[in-house]
Queue: 3 jobs
Job 1
Amino acid sequence: MTVLLAIETSGKYGSVAIAKVPQELQEADATHDAGLASPAVVAVDLPTDRGSAQSLAAFIDSLLRSENLKPSDLGCIAVLSGPGSFTGLRVGIATAKSMAYALSIPVVELDTLDCILRQTRHTTEGYRLAHVLLDAYRGQLFVKTISGNTTTGRTEGATVLCDIEGLVQSAMSAGIDKEQVFVGPGCERLQRYLAREEKLDAVKKWFESVRWINDSHSSPQASSVAELGWRKWMSGKTLDPFLLLPKYFRGSAAEEKASKPV
């Protein structure tokens, strides 16, 4: 059986998912390549009244049982390696590493903003510029920018950490039009920044010209981790569990404070 476990704990709340080849394909003629099939995905959200560290293991076990699966049925584990919550990333990666090591199976690591981009791909394709945003706090955002269109081709930038003011200046210099879209949980932080009284007059026209997408589909979900992870797994882009590390993109507040000269 070809089964992948997906873990998403990059934010305040999390989710887990199982991706597997549909049963009818497993029972089909041996000439079919089950690995190339689109998997069936089943996902469940972790509870919002406690942290993922308290609930993740129990919900993985519950999801496996609900699908009549055992841990030994797993062939790969996909997990977001960052950016995101320091604690959330550590919890997800520690769980993925320990399970993969115990089961002698590979892992697949994914970028959080790639996950958001997949979930919003149908709403961003028609724009000249699409900015995927995740709140990094301390006046910063994690950003991935996609430029071009489906006719000329699209170029996907790397995930970067940038100051909000720098992002605003860069986006405004691209022009005032309706061909820019901002998506993801970081939209709220950017909108609050732009709505400040001393900023609003200077950016009002541009602010109203772009589109904002920040709904339930723009927060990372384990179902998308499963779909993206499946593709990487089937193409052989896996990782030894020992090499899996969280990507924070910067030090913690405590680390940054400690590094400053007294």
Job 2
Amino acid sequence: MSDILLGTWVIAYRELLRFVQERSRLLSSFAMPLLFLVIFGAGFNRTIGVMAPGVDFVQFIYPGIIAMTVLMNSVMSGLSVVWDREFGFLKEILVAPMGRTGIVLGKAVGSATVAVMQGGVMLLFAPLLGVKVTPLMVIQLVPVLIIISVSLSGLGVLVASRMRSQQGFQLIVQLMIMPLIFLSGVFFPVNNVPGWLATFSKANPLTYGVDAIRQLFLEGSSDMTRVTVFSHTMTVLEDIAIVACFGTVLLLLAAWSFGKQE
């Protein structure tokens, strides 16, 4: 247990230091979410209009954009694993007195901390877009973002455990991120789509993360904007429970694969 805690702390602290030192990473991580928010928001808000009583298109996609920011930073956490392998630093970590499970958890915790900070920065744009944010909402949002980020970090580390080059990792991740985003209900309600598309969307763990964040922002809104599974409308706690289950499986697979590959 002490080896796991030691590895988690050391790796998480190193991830935070790397993020602070790479200012370009901070700016680039906001590029795609803001691009989607501006282009889709400005382009479709008047055309699509009201998604539900009292909810326009910008208010609908804004929670999804926050989830997108968390997703991108969480999955890309695996890039540091590939970078460490290429430059030989990973071997030094493996011979250190720390468990490999701690290394995986450290990557997840470090990326979760960064993702929560970046999600917090995205909240600064809320007043400019007419999205209501309250102190209670922020308090509730933080643990939700942490669970989503830690869970999705497992996916990034799992992919990274099989990759030997940064270029290959980035290619695979880009092929994964776009379907995850577009099938998660960021831009449209997953209940109002063809059956086959709804099936894929509800098998996507990010769908439940988006739904949890959206429910916090659109409290009391119509069920039209929420995810239903077998005619049951999901609650925030149920959404987070599903994300946590997915995340636990991904982290366990990442730890197993990481150990097998090295």
Job 3
Amino acid sequence: MFILKGANGFHDGWKWIIGAIVIFIGCQLVGAMPFLIAIIFELISNDGLQSMSSLDESSMMNIFSKNITFFLLMFSFVIGTITWWLWIKYIHKLSWAAATTSRDKFDWSRAFFAFGIVGAVSVATTVLGYYADPEVYIWNFDLTNFVILFVIAIILVPIQTTWEELFFRSYAMQGLGILTGNRAVPFIITSVVFGMMHVFNPEIARMGYIVMIWYIGTGFLLGTFTLMDEGTELAIGFHAANNLFIALLVTADWTAFQTDSLLIDTSDPAATWMTFIPMFIYYPALILIFAKKYKWKNWDERLFGKIDVPALKDSYDSRNTPSI
């Protein structure tokens, strides 16, 4: 069982609670320092910090070129992933496999299968959208800028999305499951909190809080993948493909990713019934495909069942009892 892989005799409650704080700060605060330092040096070289007082989030995003800004933003997740790894390795004494899957080792074929399906759908829907309504798109291809973007994105976007999965579907899922003794609590809490983490995305400002349904729904989708498949592989593959192809194919002035993508969407966004197509058609289709391929069973038990967490002392003593 995936959640119980985290209960290895080093699962004291304080470690999970403090660990969540440390891992989050490592990414969102410490990881942001290179970007902030770069901004300060840029402002010093130009006007001696005279404009620092009037600096807001929007202007911060326009100090450097899109590729440099994108690199600095994505680099924070490299630091976040390193923080996660150091904490689970030295505090929880967990291996990469134990923290990410119920299998003996991380099943990359699962991650690549999910990546391939989501990537194909992303390309297909972008092409169809372009030919269905070409007047709302601007062809933005610049060879130099796109090659640089491609290199940055292919390396750092999977790290960004993997950190989010390691934080929510790995660390928080295992920790909450062990602390509460059931699957329903981590399933619900990680899905809702994952969605709420996107509340400050520019898409919300343009289309309204109704779009939070989409983000929270995505959280439940990724939670379903993790609990039903007993591992994070499908969630990691889905998330990586989703964000990577967004970064490479289409950007807009109202999206979280501002990149030198192939296309710029100039449409005025609005939350309509089409906004929720992924939740009502695409997401269920993905679940059916994965359920059939990987023979998922016992849905109630895997999503909402209880977890028999071994007592900390018993687990520790059993590891230190000599074999006979």
